[in-house]
DNA sequence: GGCAACCTGATTTTT
DNA sequence: TCAGGTTGCC
């Protein structure tokens, strides 16, 4: 890390930066700070239609504002209107606004909405996530930190790989260290802004565990630095460090951003909190003078004492929706806001514009069980709406079938698929759901989960790009060294790494010296060829002379050109195409899809660099790839669901051990956080809410019995209409239930009494009496997997009678679709109308 | 160095 | 259940 303070010359780029708007330079126009601005348009369209609290939140002016926004209370509306209001009243230039959101999708939406309110004058605002904003700052100021401005961003998988190697080399696994445990601990420390040196100062050197951890932490830090790489947590931490170590750099941003707005404030961690504090600090008079001398614009921003006052801060949040404590989020950031920022104004938004009163009453009832919270009750003027629907399945598949049946019923009633979502606690729960969705031919989409960019072949292709953008990145180089196979094995890899270490050169440079390693000619040739390929690709990115003169990227190859050249010349694509492994066909298609994505990127971001592309990819969030336009049902975790809303919401897997998750039981505050998670899920629903669980669930190949989630009992009886309550599900079967569960303790017994919703309320057990008996149990699991089944070209047409293993007999009314996607519309005698994917449905023609 | 067969151990949520 | 690691053979 460089100790030299940054020069103001370098800082000038901040002003001349092409993506800084014209408005930025006009900052020396007459002051339009809070004191000066007139509110000539206070009853403008920007506050019309807002309730009194929302209006107050839009119009309040002062150093600090906390908007406590209950779920569905219109906080995005308030935030966007507040930003628009600041700009329209000429109290701020767009460039003086920094708005932080949780996901890129939320940022994009906020930008769009502000733009819709203001038109063109909205450009130049920074609306982004914490991570994106920090990357932007860090790339600009990389030099101060001794980093390359093309630094790589390591995701958790990358971090894990590095730690795995370190742990192996240090033999730390014998002491019980795993990559995951070390990663969690390092992340936690970084979120607290504790770097290696700070940790070393307080470490107990008598504790061998701690000594070993310190060694791991130190080596990890060293390697990232050598590779010019930062992990997710560094992005925030290093920015805070940058501001603290280089006050003049900090001053540039403090001066620039006059209004900071932070969404989802309850989920900020200590590092993010510190970043906000740094950005809202006043700029001291001495620095103001110095900035002024260097031509950095300060006029109009100083107060009577010659200081530039701290930026005004607006935070929006809801402590009841704090669900990221496991990631270091500190609820105190919001609960102690008023103490942190004395004189802060607090506005409470309780009126809900999203859900029916029944849904809100359930949410209120559940969350009121968390003690130690400010009482807050959501209400709506829109009426009770329908009852909540409850269902207890015998297995996860039963539960999934219920979900799909209800989805189909909603669809028939005119609700679009895209207006429905299914939530669950853990990603593993998608399996059973997906099987039933596929079988029933209901279009769905899993949001998040195993992401495109996490696929091995995509990471391989990306590693080529990274190796070109950041030649110091050893991790990327080692990943592609023998991918595709070039005969460079682990022994050779280690030899190169050691050579680099001994000669204090980078891995990439060591590759250039392959001839000195005493390797065979074939291996040496392969290494040199790879190095050549990477060099060539790097050359493609250098702008032509004309471009250089104009200070543009003109003449430089596009990202897609470079990627295509890399995957073709390296043999990555051809190897996949020629492979006899059938899965490689899909992998080749994925790589081609990546090339297509870079083409889109090039088209949508003319002039953007390779590093821009890599940054964008590194920072995509699960929710970002939500495509509103697709007509599919969305499946996602409860965490991903935060901030979204749907006409109909299905909360599945409401069982002890799953929600609350067993892992949370031992954590302080765990069960309360799980309750908030449930609360978040409930409040996503506008009109219809479905709560479901399964009596037994397969885990690790074993079937285990489940108890209903404790949170279900916190919802008042009258609000839920149980199609099949937990009590009903057990009472069905003395012997049967027991056999089903495999293990003794029945559920009704564990529950105690038979009363209330847990008791029997007969209805709708038909379906189960047909198919559910102890003997059929094992068969059921196999049948449902469907993977082995292939009806191929079973010819069906309207009028045919068929038998389905679950639904019994029925008559085909219509056949739609082509080839493998052929769908039979069937009217079952007892189970009603269903749509089935012919190829895999468990059906036979009669 | 590559590959197939076996074994084991893990499973929360994510920018 | 399954992905990832290890072992042993070519």
UniProtKB/TrEMBL annotation:
UvrD-like helicase C-terminal domain location: 357-643
One Gene Ontology MF term: 3'-5' DNA helicase activity
Enzyme Commission number, as recorded: 5.6.2.4
Compositional bias (Gly residues): 743-758
The keyword Isomerase appears for this protein: yes
Catalytic activity: Couples ATP hydrolysis with the unwinding of duplex DNA by translocating in the 3'-5' direction; ATP + H2O = ADP + phosphate + H(+)
One Pfam family from the record: PcrA_UvrD_tudor
Annotated stretches, region: Disordered: 1-46, 723-758
GO biological process: recombinational repair
Matches recorded under InterPro entries: DExx_box_DNA_helicase_dom_sf (IPR013986), DNA_helicase_UvrD-like_C (IPR014017), DNA_helicase_UvrD/REP (IPR000212), P-loop_NTPase (IPR027417), UvrD-like_ATP-bd (IPR014016)
Keywords recorded for this protein, A-Z: ATP-binding, DNA-binding, Helicase, Hydrolase, Isomerase, Nucleotide-binding
Sites where the protein binds ATP: 69-76
Family matches, as PROSITE patterns: UVRD_HELICASE_ATP_BIND (PS51198), UVRD_HELICASE_CTER (PS51217)
Start and end residues of each UvrD-like helicase ATP-binding domain: 48-356
Top class in the EC scheme: isomerase
GO cellular component annotations of the record: cytosol; DNA helicase complex
Family: Belongs to the helicase family. UvrD subfamily.
Record's protein name: DNA 3'-5' helicase
Protein species of origin: Agromyces protaetiae
